[in-house]
Amino acid sequence: MLSIIIPTDGAERPAVVTLAALVPGAAAGLVREVLLVDRAGNGVIERVADVAGCRYLAFEGSHAAALAAGARQARSPWLMFLQAGAVLDSGWIEETAQFMQGVSSSDRPRAGIFRYARSPYSDAGWRDGLKFVARLIAGPSAEQGLLIARDHYETLGGYAPDVRRSEARLLRRLGRSRTLLRSRIMVA
Predict the structure, then answer these.
(1) What CATH number does residue 140 fall under?
(2) Domain span at residue 145?
(3) What is the DSSP code (8-state) at residue 142?
(4) Segments in the chain below pLDDT 70
(5) Cα–Cα–Cα angle for 175, 177, 179, rounded to 5 degrees
(6) How buried is 109 (Cβ within 10 angstroms: 0-12 exposed, 13-18 middle, 19+ buried)?
(7) Which candidate, 160, 185, 186, places its Cα nearest to that of 172?
């Protein structure tokens, strides 16, 4: 049903944190596969993928190019893009399944973006206040994750590997087909 693409830079901890949050989705049968797209190539993420039962893809290039490569390798009709270190709250499984079912039964393509939530364990500072204001003005950011049907992703042109700020460009191209989901995402 759902392929999850997580670009990594060779750091084990953020990848493991995100994978741990996805286990209930796999147990519920929602997650078909998880692709760890590693740009560091130091072997750490390859071992994590092996232990966690994920697919591993070594990749050299930009962050957007890694996302695009992961999308090309994904096998499911639905794609979810998450940053390493992102943790979805417990309601994501049911909401994601409902969203996918609702979009599949309608004639309008939609994409879902998770609500940003600051980690309760991080210290709030003035920079967090600035980021909050920036989110209000600019809208969702790539760190909030993206849930999108493969055909809608391809119609929009996906992540352009050679375009600067490709993630922000794709979010802008979603326009009114973008839905802010109730489930929250925390980025470590």
Answers:
(1) 3.90.550.10
(2) 2-187
(3) G
(4) 118-142, 188
(5) 105
(6) middle
(7) 160
